[in-house]
Amino acid sequence: MDDVIKLYNFLEKDLLDEIVSKGVRKKFAANKPLMREGQFISSFPLIIRGMIRITRTSNDGNELLLYYLQENEVCAMSLTCCMAHQKSNVMAVAEEETEALMLPVSLLDKWMCEYPSWRQFVMQTFQSRFRELIETIDSIAFLRLDERLVKFFTDRYQKLGNPTFFGTHQELAIQLNTSREVVSRLLKKLEKDGKIELSRNFIDFSGLV
């Protein structure tokens, strides 16, 4: 667990000792769900490496990307459900191969009371996620779909540092809550403008970043 201690060394030593002793280390393959909407949450992840996509899904299967999670981050939405003892209102999916330490939700209230560093970490998490949710709302309300597509790629690059996307046009359309035909048309235009390179189930968007 040395990597966990190094990543979260801003937390008190006693808290780190509890995290190491109570946490269960798990690996998740790319596109594997960690948490589904409508289920009760028994544990929450501290990310060690990789990235998790947090989304909402409509009744007809469309997906709305809320935010990404990486190292040194925890899911504010899942913490909210845990503390209120409610079912999950989001889905968490591994964007790439991800390793996380799964921690029992029963520890949340105890840690909030006992450890100032944990309380600060959680509050900073809420603040960051709230800011990202506002940006998501703004992009839906004020940006054209072609602008949202470019923002999707640039935001992804800021998180991953990798200007590529592995997946189908349909998967991209689901994340943008639109149709595959519209996404394919916009991608073709970006390719024509020299901003991206398209191949089967792969997009290189180096020209955008």
TrEMBL record:
Domain Cyclic nucleotide-binding: 7-74
Matches recorded under InterPro entries: cNMP-bd_dom, cNMP-bd_dom_sf, HTH_CRP, RmlC-like_jellyroll, WH-like_DNA-bd_sf, WH_DNA-bd_sf
GO biological process: regulation of DNA-templated transcription
An example Gene Ontology molecular-function term: DNA binding
Coiled-coil region list: none
Ranges of residues in domain HTH crp-type: 143-209
Protein name: CRP/FNR family transcriptional regulator, anaerobic regulatory protein
Species: Mariniphaga anaerophila
